[in-house]
Amino acid sequence: MALREIASKPYPDQKAGTAGLRKKVAVFQQPHYLENFLQSIFDVDARLKGSTLVIGGDGRYHNRTAIQTAIAMAAANGVQRVVVGQGGILSTPAASHLIRLRKAGGGFVLTASHNPAGEDGDFGIKYNVAGGGQATETLTDKIYEHSRQITRYKTLEGVYVDLERRGVQTVGGMEVEVVDCVDDYAALMQTLFDFDRIRDWFKRGHSLRFDAMHAVTGPYAQRLFVDMLGAPANSLLNASPLEDFGGGHPDPNLIYAKPLVDLMYSDAAADLGAASDGDGDRNMILGRGTFISPGDSLAMLCAHLHELPGYKRGLSGVARSMPTCRAVDQVAKAMGIPCYETPTGWKFFANLLDARRITLCGEESFGTSSDHTREKDGVWAVLAWLNVLAATHLSVRELAERHWKRYGRHYYVRHDYDELSASVATQVMQSLAGSLVDLPGKHFGDYTVSAADEFSYQDPVDGSVAVNQGLRVVFGDAARLIVRLSGTGTKGATLRLYLERYESQEAALGWKTSDALAPLVGMAEKIVRTAEITGRRAPSVIT
Ligand code: G6P
Ligand code: ZN
């Protein structure tokens, strides 16, 4: 195996978005494209040299090829040991855990999350640093700058690692250890949750339907829910991971996980319905005929987590991304713990978790997790819900109703306008940004604007500042309208409009979400002028 330095020319588009570099497979297949990006990481982050590197992905098309490339380059760049999931598989939270467990210098997580996979689909790569969290924006910016000037990359020729064979293989002077993708993760889950109690819950005839959407969580669900917790095999749907995710769009929400939603609203519903996404970091929670919005799920877990074995010491604090509804704020207030509001993007939670300022965090985009790892964690959320249901002897609906009675209810919806031209999307943002100063004090129906601004965030741990993180129009505690551009799309621009309405009177707790939010939709059109500017009469996706 010869060490080679290969001459290369920069690509202009290797800037990471909200969660890593995501592009069409064909883009990643361009000569030296992946190599340039990886070399930029090796060159910029010196911690990888002489240390352990974790590699794994969600199993989508191009995963195995990319992993062979990454291993050959790791060997050429002085990495001491690569730990890779068998078959190239690791869910995002499991990869983050492995980085922490092995005290690795970092990890490559090969995924484009829930974006469609296959030859014509998307591919992606996220760089996670020592400690398991996603690279900070400062670091990804440096990597991007480097990628624009790159002239060569280093690789070892003739490398082929058998990704099916567990154990250690040698590549040049580097060791490659192929590990089972579930073992360490399952062991961690056993330290957090009361497995006996959940097993009993299933024994008493309670049921689960978990939709793995033909993506990475299949093997995790099989081991944890079925093998370890005794759920019947028919609890799992679409549990075999496929390179093209079965042609689907593995995003656990009301649109893309519709078959599960329909099931949970039918006579065949289970006690708990749940789904996860492509790389296993998202989750959706449903009860019989009941959808628990991600913001509600975060608030409800916040209220109950201290009852579960891994969290007996209580929560140090919680955090949510800015567009996530403020349900968890109510619980935090009642518990007397701090509640942080961060920009969209899981990476913003990392410092708060590392500094032990928070134990639990979540986002409206179907992400929830705790300090056990540095990524959001879909299977963890399902286990947490199973444990809460088993411990409280309540159904999902009963739990939700009790919660709303105590803390009030946040009705919430997100409207996405997909594939807009960049100029139209920018126009919506600029027009709203321009009108923000005039909004405070203005009345819209029963609502009065209390504040309107562009959200910026100063990290309380390292003092770094993130500006331009979305526009918000606040009506006191009663409601909010938020607008921002997505940082994860791969086609055109996606505009997101988030609507939130809070009600605490008992008579107002059982409304249909769409009815509750109808007045806000009207207000949003007046304030944001989405239809007027985009020419779209309705959003492309409502979740
Ligand atoms: C990914 C990130 C999340 C983020 C979500 C939506 O899943 O991990 O942190 O909330 O994308 O981001 P977007 O920028 O598309 O709204
Ligand atoms: Zn994901």
TrEMBL record:
The protein's enzyme class: isomerase
Keyword Magnesium: yes
PROSITE patterns xrefs: PGM_PMM (PS00710)
Entry keyword set: Isomerase, Magnesium, Metal-binding, Phosphoprotein
Cofactor: Mg(2+)
Assigned EC number: 5.4.2.2
InterPro entries per the UniProt record, alphabetical: A-D-PHexomutase_a/b/a-I, A-D-PHexomutase_a/b/a-I/II/III, A-D-PHexomutase_a/b/a-II, A-D-PHexomutase_a/b/a-III, A-D-PHexomutase_C_sf, A-D-PHexomutase_CS, Alpha-D-phosphohexomutase_SF, PGM
SUPFAM superfamilies: Phosphoglucomutase, C-terminal domain, Phosphoglucomutase, first 3 domains
Any one of the GO BP annotations: carbohydrate metabolic process
One Gene Ontology cellular component: cytosol
GO molecular function, one term: phosphoglucomutase activity
Alpha-D-phosphohexomutase alpha/beta/alpha domain residues: 14-152, 203-286, 295-407
Gene3D superfamilies: Alpha-D-Glucose-1,6-Bisphosphate, subunit A, domain 3 (3.40.120.10), Alpha-D-phosphohexomutase, C-terminal domain (3.30.310.50)
Keyword Repressor: no
Domain of life: Bacteria
Catalysed conversion reaction: alpha-D-glucose 1-phosphate = alpha-D-glucose 6-phosphate
Family membership: Belongs to the phosphohexose mutase family.
Protein name: phosphoglucomutase (alpha-D-glucose-1,6-bisphosphate-dependent)
Source organism (scientific name): Panacagrimonas perspica
